[in-house]
Amino acid sequence: MANYDAAIVGGGLIGGAIALELARQKLRVVLFDRQQPGQEASWAAAGMLAPAPDTPDSIPLVPLGRASLELYPEFVAMVEEVSSRQVGYRPEGTIEALFGRNAERELSTLIALHHGLGLPSEPLRVEEARQLEPALGREARAAALLPYEASVDNRALTAATLEAAAHEGAKIRAGTAVTSLVLQAGRCTGVVAGGENFSAGHVVLAAGCYSGEIEGMRIYAPTRPARGQMLALRSSKVQLTRVLRSERGYIVPRNDGRLVVGSTLEYVGFEKRITPGGLQRILTAALELVPELADAEIVETWSGLRPDTPDHLPVLGPTEVEELVMATGHHRNGILLAPVTAKLIREWLTEERTSLAWDTFSPLRFLAAQRKTAN
Ligand SMILES: Cc1cc2nc3c(=O)[nH]c(=O)nc-3n(C[C@H](O)[C@H](O)[C@H](O)COP(=O)(O)OP(=O)(O)OC[C@H]3O[C@@H](n4cnc5c(N)ncnc54)[C@H](O)[C@@H]3O)c2cc1C
Q1: C-alpha 38 – ligand 1 centre gap (Å)
Q2: I need a labelling partner for 278 at 20 to 30 A (CA). Which of 185, 197, 335, 355 fits?
Q3: What's the pLDDT tens digit per position in 234-268?
């Protein structure tokens, strides 16, 4: 039976980044994906590296997001060097535009919130915002510059990270679904994958929105898919440097000139359909931000499934089962959170401590809630 120090279930950006981090520590790593790795949420995302909270639910995530954003330049440099691939990292900032009647008041609230969370966002007059991004629509009533934000080509980054992990010695087993974990006397000793047993010192569950589908894992990782529809535009007229965002949607420029536009948030199971209603909503948001895109070419449409959880926060850390660790449920922020997730998992596996507090994200929080309901 093959024997590894760590078995990782799932080859998205989260599993790939963990495999790379562990392989660089000379651990013997195997990563399983039931299909070709890197084809799910990590492929579908927009690639914004945006630690600012988009809802009150995501406020507890801000310190983790900031820590991960700080790791990004080094992470990208390492991945690009080891894989010899470019990943389209763009540390250009974001402009958040406000269109409502109370835009000025909303802007003051947003800036105060960001400053309270240690995010140095700056209010801009609309004319200033349009000097920075001349394509920004005239209907915008207020704007903020988030100069610390960045973006990355998540498809390129995921592929390069997996390649770098393989280069560092991780075994990547594509087309090999993990069907169950091997549990012996309260300890996880490996996985059953593709009908074979693999023994491992540690098992890390990083199967995105499918994590809760693996036998016995729903109690720690009650993940549920949150569909996001997306499209990409090309325009000879519109040049953007920064990410443009409003409360209704966003436009993320890529180095190859594509403009990635998103997104919806829908709870429709594991269904990846692209719908007229979904596309209409994201196009309306995009045209509000940049009206000149009205005659752009639609070059691609797609959708993906975010790994959401009951409290919309990730599931990170050890479980009640020894040597079984969760790294899932990153919902809307898994691209941003990949470097810090890999670092925390590596610290836990090799030193049994972490340099950042991660109790808020403990997989045991759902158990506690379930027991309370049962009493
Ligand atoms: C439309 C959209 C836009 C987004 N935009 C952003 C953004 O701008 N910024 C950001 O930070 N995040 C964004 N996200 C969120 C981000 O994409 C996810 O949080 C992140 O990709 C999750 O990565 P993952 O590796 O956990 O999951 P995934 O990428 O979904 O990978 C999970 C992998 O596990 C494999 N798997 C599943 N079951 C098994 C099994 N039984 N055995 C073996 N393998 C298995 C799957 O095949 C898959 O390859 C967006 C997501 C979507 C859908």
Answers
A1: 8
A2: 335
A3: 999 999 999 999 999 999 999 999 999 999 999 99
Q: Please provide the DSSP assignment of 176-209 as one string.
A: --EEEEEEETTEEEEEEETTEEEEEEEEEE--GG
Q: What pLDDT was estimated at residue 2?
A: 74
**CATH code for the domain defined by 3-83+154-222+310-374:** 3.50.50.60
Q: How far is the centre of ligand 1, averaged over its atoms, from the C-alpha of 293 (Å)? A: 29
How many Å apart are CA 19 and CA 320, to the nearest integer?
23
Comparing 29-33, 42-46, 165-169, 366-370, the range with the smallest average pLDDT is 366-370
Token pair for residue 62? 């801000």
- Residue 14 Cβ contacting ligand 1 at under 6 Å: yes
pTM: 0.98
Average pLDDT over residues 20-39: 98
- Residue 243's H or E segment, with its range, is strand 243-245
Centre of ligand 1 to C-alpha 367, Å, is 24
198 lines ligand 1 (CB under 6 A): no
Give residue 179's pLDDT.
Answer: 96
Write down the CATH superfamily of domain 94-149+225-308: D-Amino Acid Oxidase, subunit A, domain 2 (3.30.9.10)
How many angstroms separate the CA atoms of 149 and 161, rounded? 21
The pLDDT value recorded for residue 375 is: 55
> Does 328 sit in the ligand 1 pocket, CB within 6 Å?
yes
Is residue 304 in contact with ligand 1, taking CB distance under 6 Å?
Answer: yes
Rounded to 5 degrees, what angle do the CA atoms 339, 194, 268 make?
60
Position 48: which residue type?
M
Q: Is the CB of 37 under 6 A from ligand 1?
A: yes
Q: Which of 335, 340, 345, 361 to mutate to test the pocket of ligand 1 (most atoms within 8 A of CB)?
A: 335
The domain ranges of the chain are 3-83+154-222+310-374, 94-149+225-308
